[in-house]
C-alpha cells in the first residue's frame, strides 16, 4: 500500500520515538514469560511491598509482583486491543465502502442500522451484552469490534462518497469493472490516509474501552493481568498512601503505573500514525 | 505620461519541498496612468504571480527574492502590512478568475461590495450602497437596484464576474488587476463581460493589468501586451504592433491551435454510420436536459458537438456511454440497438466505445501508476498478461510520445496536465475501440499543449480509423478537427451539417451568435461585433 517501511530512514524524530516505544511494548508482550521475573499470577511475596529488590515495583494486595504483571498485561491488553481494532476496521470499512458504492436501499438500510447502534451508549450496551454472554476474551473482542465499527463505517462511507464523484470511478464503471475492483483498487487506496489516521485514534479508544470494562469488572477476568483491572485494584491505594517518605509514597503510586503504560502506548501509536498519515497524504498530490 | 507602476528586475521564488525555484526571473514592467497592459503566457509562465506583486502580494509559499515594485512613487517591496492594507482595495483592486470561489457565499453581493469603501473610510455605507447600484447599472447587470441583494449562488457566472468587477471599482482605484476574468465563461457570455469591463475601465480612466492566456481576448482589452514564458519576458509591444508583426517565434506559436489543420481525409466511404442517436430525451430528476436529440457519427470521422455550458453536450455523451438512462429515443451502435445501462452491455461492446474526460486530473486514479492505468484495460478487455502486457504498455506510451522508460512507473501526480491527458488517450486506445468520445479534452490545457493533443488525436484517427464524438465549447478546436458539426442549445440540436456549411454564412440565429462571439485576433473585433449587434437589434 504505502511502502512506509521504505521511508523509515527518513522518518522524523517523533516517529522514531513512537516506533521505538511500540517496539519495546511488542518485545515485552511477545517475550513476557522470559522477561518477567515472576509468573503472571504467582504470589511472590508479602502484600504491598515497597519498590525495593527483588520487587522493583512492589507487590499488589495478594503479594504478586507488579512488574511481572505489567509485562504480562502488555501481552493481554495490547493484543486484544489490536485484534479488536483490526476487526472493527474490517467490518466498518467493508460495510462503509459497500454502502457508499452501491448506494440506494443498501446504503439506507446499513446507515440506519448503524445509526441505531450508535444511538445506544456504547459502554452500557457493551456491559449489557457482556453480562449476558459472559466476559470471555472472544466475546469482548466481538462486542467492542462491532460497536467500534460504527465510527469506522461512518468515516469510510463519507470518504468514499467524496472519491466516488471522481471521473476515474466513472472510467472504471464504463470499463465494466465489478464492485470488488472498484472498492478495492479504485476507492480503498485513496481512502487510506484518513482511515490510517482513524486507526491510530480508534486503537487508543479501544484500548481505553477495554481498560474501562476491566476496571468495571467485565473485561478480562482475574487472575489474567491487564492494565485496566490493575488500575481498579490499586486505585483506592492513592487515598491511603503516606507521602511523607519515598518508601511509603511508592505505595500510592501503584495505580499510576498501569495508567502510565496505557498513556505512553497511546502517545507512541499516535506519533507513528501522524507520520504514516503525512507520508500517505504526501503521495496523494 | 507619469508612471503609475514601476517594477524593476523582479525575482520571485516559490518553495517546493526544501528548495526554492524561481518563478519570475528578473522581469521589469511599466504602467502609465490609464493604460491597460495585457500579460499573456501559458500556465506556469508566472503571469498571475507577477500580476499579484503589483499589489505587493505574494502567494503563500512564495517570496520576493529581489527587485523593486514602486506604486505611484511608493516602494512596495518590504512595505509594512499597514501601508499595503491602505493601498489594497482602495487604490489597487483585484478581480479573480473564479468569482464563484472569490465571493463569500454567506453574504449578499452588496454587503461584500461595500466592505472595502466602508473599511477604508472612503464613504459611509449608505453612499457606498447607492454607488454600488450605480456601478451595477454601469456594468449592465439586469435589475441593478435589486441584484445586490442576492446571494452569489443566485446569479449566473457572467453576472457574478461583472459584480466582482463592479466591486473592484468601489473605491475608484488607480489600478485594477484582472486575473483571467473571462476564462471560465462561455463565449456568448464572455463577449458581454469583456464589453462591460472595457467600458468601465475606460470611463473611469483607471490603469489595468489584464492577465490571460488568450491572445484574441487581450487584443480587445489592452493597449500594450507583454508575453511571458517560464518567468521571463519574451516580448513587449503595443497590441496592434504585436499582432501585425510579432517579433518572437514563441509569440506566433501562441495562436498555433487556431492555425492547426488536420491532414486531408479520403472522401467518406458510403458505409452505414457507426453511431446513431435518434430522438433521445433525458432528464436529471424532473429537470429535462435533452429534448429530441438526433445525430450520427460516421466511421473514421470526427463529429463535433458545440454549445455553451448547460446545452446538453456532455449529457448526450453520458447517454451514449450508458451513464444516464434516456427517457425516450433510441441509440444504435454499428446497426444494433445499444442497451441503456452499462450492466446490460457486454464487455465486448464496452470495449468498442471509450471516453476521454475533460479533467485528466480526476480521470486518473492518483494511486495508480501509469503501468497499472494502461495495463488494466489490456488485461480486462484483451486478456494480456505478463510480458505481452508490458510490451503493449510500452508501445502505447511510445504512441502518445512519452518515453516508456521514464514514464511507466510514474504516478499521475508526477505528470504535467498535457501528459496526463495523453495517458488518458492511451488508456482509451488500449481497449482498441471504434468510437472515442472526447469530452472537452483540450479545454483545461494551454494552447500549445492543446494543439499537441489535437495533432495526436488526428494522427491516431488517420492510422486506426477511429471515430470521434468531440464535445467542446471552443470553436477554434472545432474548426481545426471536425468533419461534421452539431450545434446544441438548451438540450436541443439547433443545427447540424458539414463543417464547411456550418462555418459559412446563412445559418440559424443561435449558430450565428455563437460563431460571432469567438474573439478574433483583431483589436477592433469587439467594437465591430457590438456595433453590428446593436444595428441588427434596432
Report on the structure:
The complex is a heterodimer of chains A (285) and B (538). Chain A is mostly helical and 285 residues long. Chain A is built from twelve helices and no strands. In chain A, helix 1 (13-30) crosses helix 3 (66-102), helix 8 (179-215) packs antiparallel against helix 12 (256-284) and helix 9 packs antiparallel against helix 12 (256-284). The longest helix of chain A has 37 residues, at 66-102. Chain A is elongated and about 75 Å long. The model of chain A has no long low-confidence stretch (mean pLDDT 84). A six-stranded mixed beta sheet of chain B has the order 6-7-8-3-9-10, sandwiched between helices. In chain B, helix 8 (187-204) links the parallel strand 7 (175-179) and strand 8. The longest helix of chain B is centred in the middle third of the chain and has 18 residues, at 187-204. Chain B folds into two domains: 3-255, Rossmann fold, CATH 3.40.50.300; 275-516, Rossmann fold (3-Layer(aba) Sandwich), CATH 3.40.50.300. With 538 residues, chain B is α/β, with parallel strands linked by helices. In chain B, helix 7 (157-168) runs parallel beside helix 8. At the A-B interface, helix 7 and helix 8 of A face helix 16 of B. Chain A: Keywords: Cell membrane, Membrane, Transmembrane, Transmembrane helix, Transport.
Spatial arrangement of strands, main beta sheet of chain B = 6-7-8-3-9-10
- CATH class membership of the largest domain in chain B: Alpha Beta
* Helix run count of chain A: 12
The overall number of domains of chain B is: 2
Largest interface: A-B, 17 and 26 residues
Q: In CATH terms, what is the fold-level topology of the largest domain in chain B? A: Rossmann fold
Give the strand content of chain B.
25-35%
> Uncertain spans of chain B, ≥5 residues at pLDDT below 50?
none
- Head-to-tail CA distance between termini of chain B: 40 Å
Could you name the CATH topology of chain A? MetI-like fold
Please give the share of residues in helix of chain B: 25-40%
The DSSP helix count of chain B reads 24
Class of secondary structure makeup of chain A:
mainly alpha
Write out the CATH superfamily name of chain A: MetI-like
Distance between the termini of chain A: 16 Å
Broad shape of chain B? globular
Subcellular location (chain A): Cell membrane
Domain ABC transmembrane type-1 (chain A): 74-277
Transmembrane segments (chain A): 15-36, 77-103, 123-147, 199-220, 256-277
Family (chain A): Belongs to the binding-protein-dependent transport system permease family.
